Each structure stands twice: as C-alpha cells, then as structure tokens.
Amino acid sequence: MAGRRLSPRHRRLIVPGVMTAVMLVALLGLGVWQVRRLAWKQGILAQIEHAESSPAMPMVGDATPFGPAIPSEAAATMPAAYSKVAITGRFREDLSALYGAEVRQTPDGVRMGAQLIVPLERKGAAPLLVDRGWVPLSRQRPIGMPTGDVTVEGYIRPPDRPGPFSAHDDVAMRRFYTLDPAAIGMALGLKVAPYILVALGQPPPDLFPDPARRLPRPPNDHLSYAITWFGLALALAVIFVVWSAKVLRT
C-alpha cells in the first residue's frame, strides 16, 4: 500500500520545520551549557568565600603549601593564584611605584589615583612586589610606610601581560599600566618574584593607601544567559507552531 502523499500545505512546513529544529537544538544546547557553567562558577565562588573567611597561610621564603596555579618552570615558587597568604619582610619605600589610574571620591573631593606598588624584601627569597592599595596622585601629606619587619596579609595575583591597546609604561616616572612584576622589577633594578601580593585590610587612620577589602570575584551572569537561551528557544517554538497552524488552515 502506497504511503499517503503529503499535501502542498504540509510540504511547505518541511524546510522551515528542519531549520526550526536545528535552531532549537542549538539554543537548548547553549542554555544547557550555561547551566553547567553556572554550577562551575558557583563552585569557584564558594572556594573564594571559603578562602576569604579562612586565616591567611604563612608563606616563608619561596616555599609554598599551595601548589602551582598553572604548570610552569616556576611551579616550585609559584603559589596558587588568589591564595590568601601572610608574608613577612621589609618595605623598600625608596623603590615605590604606581600602577594603573582610577578616579575615586575622597574626603578632599574627587581625586585621580593609582595603586601603590612597593617591593618587600624577604629573607632567603626574592623581593616581592606588594600592591598596598589606592593612593591619590596629589595629596597634602606623605603616605605612611611601615618600618622594620612587617607581615602583610593579602592574596596572590598572577602577572598581567600588555595587550595591543595597553597604555605605555613611564619607566622614568615609575608609572606602570600593566601589572607585570618582571617588567616593574627590572625598572626598579630588582629581580622580583613572578607574582604580586595584593594587600587586604582596612585603610589606616590617614586613609591611604586604601587596600583591597576582599578577594576578587569573577562575574556570574550564567543564569541570565541560560534564561535568555531557553527563552529564545521557547519563543521560536511558539512562533513555529502558530505559523504552522496558519499555513495548515489556508
């Protein structure tokens, strides 16, 4: 018995139906991928929350209990990125530098400022660049600098690399726009550790430098992206059903 032949109206649905099915598979796949990314990102944020609430781990010399952030020749001396640590040494105020440019509101009004980078000399290890926090470029009094041995708590930040549109560093003025410890250390005449320590804490009584309050957190927009993809898939399905019903009625 020969199969029933499709009517012209049904044949009109074949190509749009196949295209709609392909697009639905793609949209649903993107939505599922974003749901998986959401679970992955929530795990990372939970780890950051745990690290932030835990005491800083002491780091003596180049020994580290954390393990490398990425496999490399410097793995033995590279703690995991964004580990919360406590490091002891002496600041070299005479070799301080500035990184970046940021406008902030201060008690004296809106001021342009930058992050204060100071080398920390350590016993039995290479000097370490410390981001002590934001300072205004123009100020009425000097920035306080601890003397003698100090213990700085903060998190490990991996080095940045300049991009094609990065501002050029002003080595003579010790103004840097890429947080590359090797390049900054070379400009200061030092061979420094291949990572940065970003100080955590509250600002001193004279307000500056203003250190970081918490560990950095990656953006987590995966739920909104998943809703967008699933919403588009639903809208596409509804449009196709409505259009198909109209085609079959005519």
Q: Percentage of helical residues?
A: 25-40%
Backbone structural class:
alpha/beta
Strand order of the largest sheet: 2-4-5-8-6
SSE order, one letter for each helix or strand: HHEEEEEEEHEH
Mean pLDDT: 87
Low-confidence stretches: 64-76
Strand content: 15-25%
Shape: elongated
Tally of separate helices: 4
Number of strands: 8
- C-alpha Rg (nearest Å): 28 Å
Would you kindly provide a written description of the structure presented here, covering whatever features stand out?
The protein has 250 residues and is an alpha/beta fold. It has 2 domains: 8-45 and 220-249; 83-199, no CATH class. Helices cover 32% and strands 24% of the residues. It is built from 4 helices and 8 strands, in the order ααβββββββαβα. It has helices spanning 8-11, 14-53, 181-187, 222-249, and strands spanning 57-58, 84-91, 97-106, 109-122, 125-136, 150-157, 175-176, 196-199. Strands 2-4-5-8-6 form a 5-stranded mixed beta barrel. A hairpin with a 2-residue loop joins β4 and β5. α2 (14-53) packs antiparallel against α4 (222-249). The longest helix has 40 residues, at 14-53. Residues 64-76 have low confidence and may be disordered.
